[in-house]
Every structure is written in C-alpha cells, then in structure tokens.
Amino acid sequence: MTHSSIPPVLTPRASTCQIPIDSSIRSNTPIVLTIAGSDSGGGAGIQADIKAMSATGSFACSVITAITSQNTQGVSAIFPIPLDHVTSQLDAVFTDLNIVAVKVGMLADSQIIKIVADKIKQYQPKYLVIDPVMVATSGDLLLETSAISTLKQELIPLADIITPNLPEGAALTGKAVPKSEAEMQGMIEDLRALGAKALLLKGGHLEKDENSNDLLILPTTSALISAKRFPTQNTHGTGCTLSSAIASFLAQDNTLEKAVELGKQYISHAIAHADELQVGEGHGPVHHFFVGHGNVR
User: Fold this and answer.
1) Which residue ranges does UniProt annotate as crossing the membrane (predicted)?
2) Which end of the chain is more exposed for a tag (fewer CB within 10 A), N or C?
C-alpha cells in the first residue's frame, strides 16, 4: 500500500473477528517508570530501559529528560527537555498510573535533579533505583561538579539502590578509579556514606578479569556477584539495561538481593546474545529480547 492510498481520516470498522473481552479481568503487571534521556540509536537510555522492563515482565512508562542525537558510534548533540515539561511529564504519569518502581538515569543538570527529587518525595514510589549516568566512555564527566553534589545531597539518599560503574563510583567518592577487586572493596565505606540503602558497584571496566564481577554493598555486609565475561563490542546500554531490570524485578516483589541476582542474570544473557544482532557500525546494543517476551526466570 502506498502512502497516497491511505485515507486522510480513518473511521472505525466492524471487526471480522469478534473477541469477547471480560472487563472484570485486569492485568496485575507492575508498572515501572524510567526517568532518563532518549537515545535515538535505540541502544541505551529510555529506549533500552523500556525494552529491559518489558522483557523482564513489567509495564514501562517514561519521563524524558533530554533528547540525544546518537548512534552506535557516539553522541553528536544533546537537547535538554525544558524544566516545566519534565515536571508536567512526572505529574502526568504519577497522578494516573500505579507506579511501583522508578529507575533514574541521565538527569543532565542540578535543576532537573532537584525536580526529580521533589517529585519522588511527593509521590513516594515503593522502590527507587538510580543509575548515576555521570561519566562518558571516554572518561569525560557528563555532569558538572555542582550537579554531582546535588545528586549526592538530594536524590541518592532516597534510593533503594544505586548502580555506579567504577568511574562513577570514583566521581561520587572522590577516590581513584579502582583497578582491581581489592580496590573495589576499598571503596565500600565511602559508597555507604552516600546514604543509599544499597549499592551495586559494577566491575565491568576491569576488562582483564576473566569474569565480570559486581559488588553488592548492603548496610552491614557486601557480596561479590560474578558472571562470565563475553568477548563482544556490543555492550552499548548495559548500565541502563541492568538498572532497569533490577527496578522491574523489585516491582515484582522480589527482595533486593534477588532482584539484583535476576538483573545480573538478565544482562549477562543479553550480552551473551548481543552478537546475534547487527545494529550499526560501532558499539552495538545488547540483545534485550534474547528469549522473547517474559521473565528470565
């Protein structure tokens, strides 16, 4: 069908196949909100979040904080969403949808961070997962120092869990980027001092290690979560995907430890299957739907 054959106004037509609908049956699928930037290439940000939440069995809604011009080879432009529209998006979803868990990603600046923190306090979702998107792959800071301070003061203390990678952990604590598992362990107390209920320090940057080891830090204990490392360049959006999966599993009433375990399993499989996709010429995305729709359990 060509575009010229589509009528300018579409009117409802009687279906040839009538399916009875029982209006008393309602879905109990938990609703998860992602607050993050858009990735036009589809591998990270809002797009990755929605895919991960959907693939792990939750319903995803979104608040977009910035629009990026982006593909597998890099980011060429960023357009921050006006503050009043960030606010109106938050009010729109929170006043209508029963949002159980919230995942926060790219927030761009101090003003947006304060708006998000105020709305989290106002609407009080059951779970808050923060992926502190602060450091680019190149090592450049994506947040100004003042914005990092606002993130630490206003938003992180509200979190059930934050999921920094090693450069982000260093930016949050003022310590050097860990170069070993022992140095990751040495960062535990500084990370606890940030005030989140739990932290997942991701060790993916330790590329010489045979396994990808993350450190789950709880108030009085810590545990190493290990998974096989897969040789692929298609790892774009791994942090977004993992934090979104954790938020999804929390919304399904898993314990924090179980949600992290399931999230780690999910991202490991998504990376393992990443080379089955052929997307772009650079660092491609992970395979969010490696087993189709439904939970990984």
Assistant:
1) none
2) N
